[in-house]
């Protein structure tokens, strides 16, 4: 126990979490770009940043990337005590997906079928990379 350093524990988690979130965002972006029923056609774009891109999918991916990093960072302290890898990964996945979906639902821009497909997409595209990356 004398070598235990909680900061290094979070640093290690943060590094792997960045990889997981990057994969999650890439998989999700590819699916949203290629599957018509999951098309992202509306996302708030700050006026001052429209010169970068006016494509809602780009801003959706940027928002998802940074939002998921924040959610996962805060969730670290809640999931850290869980010993079982499957349970820990599932808990983190549910936390991330529920919080993201609440935000999308509250935007009011999409129908129920979009939300249903999106929940399934997010559950799979977050859980699978997170489980296998964490499995090492």
Write structural notes for this entry.
There is one protein chain. By secondary structure, the protein is mainly alpha-helical. It has 4 helices and no strands. It has helices at 6-34, 56-79, 85-107, 112-135. Helix 1 (6-34) packs antiparallel against helix 2. The two termini are 23 Å apart. Residues 1-6 have low confidence and may be disordered.
Write the layout of secondary structure elements.
Blueprint: H1 6-34, H2 56-79, H3 85-107, H4 112-135
Helix pairs in contact: 1-2, 1-4, 2-3, 3-4
State the share of residues found in helices, binned by percent: over 70%
Strand content: under 5%
Q: Total helix count? A: 4
* Number of strand elements: 0
Q: Which series of helices and strands comes N to C?
A: HHHH
Instruction: Output the structural class.
Output: mainly alpha
Q: C-alpha Rg, in Å?
A: 16 Å
Biggest sheet statistics:
none
Measured between the Cα atoms of the first and last residue, the distance is 23 Å
pLDDT < 50 runs, ≥5 residues: 1-6
Shape: globular
């Amino acid at each position: 126990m004398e070598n235990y350093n909680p900061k290094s524990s979070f640093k290690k988690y943060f590094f792997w979490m960045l990889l997981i979130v990057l994969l999650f965002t890439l998989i999700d972006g590819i699916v949203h770009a290629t599957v018509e029923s999951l098309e992202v056609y509306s996302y708030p774009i700050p006026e001052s940043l429209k010169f970068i891109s006016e494509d809602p999918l780009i801003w959706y991916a940027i928002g998802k990337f940074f939002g998921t990093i924040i959610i996962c960072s805060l969730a670290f302290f809640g999931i850290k005590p869980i010993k079982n890898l499957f349970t820990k990964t599932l808990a983190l996945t549910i936390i991330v997906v529920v919080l993201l979906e609440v935000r999308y639902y509250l935007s009011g821009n999409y129908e129920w079928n979009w939300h249903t497909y999106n929940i399934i997409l997010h559950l799979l595209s977050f859980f699978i990379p997170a489980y296998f990356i964490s499995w090492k």
